[in-house]
Fold Alpha 1,4-glycosyltransferase domain-containing protein.
Amino acid sequence: MNRFKVFGFIVTALILGFIFKTARNQSTLPYIISYMIKPLTNTSMNPENVLKEGNGVIFLETTDRMQPPPLVLCAIESAVRVYPDRPVVFFMKGLTDITSEEDEKRAKEKFPSLSFENVYIFPLRMEELFKDTPLLKWYQKVDPKKERFWIHNLSDGCRMAMIWRYGGLYFDADVISMRPIPEKNFLTAEHHHTSGSSVFGLTPHHSFAWRSLNDFVQNYNGDVWGNQGPTLFTRVLGQLCELHDFKSLDNFVCGNISFLHPERIYPIPYANWKRFYEVWDKLPTFNNSYALHLWNYMNSQEKRTVNIGSNTLVENLYKQYCPSMYGLLAKNATTANQHT
């Protein structure tokens, strides 16, 4: 037995000697180190590892857009600040593959306001996401050119598949977070009997998510706005419980799912979305809300934005909940004024 130990020691010493002898050439050393750590890096930098605890905060970009507008960056930054102990992950369809920490670092450098340790950016690959779900066959068969609301329907499918696969919280990229949502399994009511789909959270592989994925395919109608999102959630929740009016700010509990009062996310309803871009005599506190949905789809025609110094509600929200993004906007506005 001792002979085998001695032989093993000699072989190990010879191998290590060869490596260090080769490494004396400084131009070779980086390649050796890179080769040794590459498998570890590739394994660690993927959504499965980052989101393995089931407590991630997920945002999506389902177009090829690589320059998100300020509202998107504000939404992500606000979530990062509210959930500092959770990974906040931004999936972008137009992003090239991320296979190393260096790739991920370069991706984050494009967005200075998101330079936080708990922010991760990954490419959005539909077929990988939809694998082993009812959505894969639908995605392979559907013709986007014939779809009236393709990007929105695709986004609806992606968010359901994401939360089914990874669990955690999903936020639309026009939702500004203000304080942590204390629930694990929840939907958010837009009205008393209607669920929204812009903010929700579930544990991984939750039965509600699987029901929703099946309903997405079985009752698919891409020509009806909201059919694959809020209407779907309302329909599936209604199969589990009878929805009724909220009598107070208390949540309505359906099994192990909390149905949050409209005040929690939608204190300003979609019909009043312009109020975000107006000056208020007295700024609201939103003490009963966890986040604010700014209804950016309603703004798609007018394209209202944050004007520095306007004292609008949205400017004050940026100042308080995404100060890094606001600082960049203020700096750009100052620079622009100096050149006029």
About this structure: The chain has one domain: 47-338. Residues 18-43 have pLDDT under 50 and may be disordered. The first strand starts at residue 57 and ends at 61. The chain is about 40% helix and 15% strand.
